[in-house]
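Assess the record.
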Amino acid sequence: MNQQPIETARDPDLRLSLQALQRAAQRAWELAAQTGTAIVVSHGGVIEHIRPSPQAKASWLQDPPGAVG
């Protein structure tokens, strides 16, 4: 497993993949908030159902992971 930050990857597609995933997660959050749909996430093996509000941002988008997993 590579523990280097994804921003330092040699492959430009890999460097941009984190941003693409963050945009997709943000859009999913916005759509779920608009439609009242729950988002299902797993934190440490525990499944959670989150009902986002239009005003709140997803916590995982505010603190993105820095290493390739």
In short: Confidence is low (pLDDT under 50) at residues 64-69. Strands lie at 39-43, 46-50. Residues 12-35 form the longest helix (24 residues).
